[in-house]
Amino acid sequence: MSNTILALDTSVEFCSIAIYKKKRVYSLSEQCNKTHTKKVLPMLQKILLQTKTKLIELDYIACSQGPGNFTGLRITNSIAQSLSLSLNIPIINVSTLAIMAQKAWRKYKQKKIIILINAKKSHVYWGQYKKNKKSIWTGKHTEVLLEKKNIETKINNLKRKWMLISNEPQNHQYKKCININEIKYFFPNAKDIIPFALLNIKKQKKHSMENRINYLNNL
C-alpha cells in the first residue's frame, strides 16, 4: 500500500501545497507575497477536499526547510509541527534549493543547476546541485549566503556548463558568464518535494517529528 504524503512550501513569494496519494501527485500554488498566513490554510483545506483526503490518512509531512523568506519558513514550520504532533506522523525536511533543482529537472531535464534565491539587499542564497548517475541530487554542502558582488566570479570559477535558476528576473545579467548555458526564472513548487520524500521513505531514513529550518544566516 502506498503512503499518503502532504508537501508544503511557503519559502518565497509563492505558496504551494501538494498531496501524493495512490501514486499520483496533486498540487495547488498561488502567489502570496506577504499574505502566506491568509492563503496557506484555505489552500490546504481546498486540496484535501479535491483529493478526498482526511488528515488522519496522512502518513508523512514533507516540507521546505529553507533557505528562504523568514516569515514564510516559520509558517511552514508551524503547520508541519502542528500536524506532526496531532497526527503522530514524521516530518521530512527538504532544502528549498534542492526543490528548485528538481523543478528544473522536471521542466527542462537539466542535471547541473545553480540556484539563486534573493536573501537580502546585497545577498543571495546560493546552491549548486548535480543529479548523479543514480538520479540522486547532490549539493547540500554547497549552500551558502553569498554577496551579490561575488556571484559572477563564483560562476566563472565553475567547470563546464550549468543552468541557472532564480526567483529574481534581474539575475538574467549572468547569461554572459561563460559557464551558464541557460537561465530560467521561477519559484519552488511543493510537487517537487515529493520525489525527495519518496526517496527518503524508500531508504528508510530516520525521520524527525520536527521541522529543522535552515536560514543560512550564520554563513
UniProtKB/TrEMBL annotation:
It comes from the Bacteria. Gene3D superfamilies: 3.30.420.40. GO terms for biological process: tRNA threonylcarbamoyladenosine modification. Residues 30-136 form the Gcp-like domain. GO terms for cellular component: cytosol. Belongs to the KAE1 / TsaD family. TsaB subfamily. This is tRNA threonylcarbamoyladenosine biosynthesis protein TsaB.
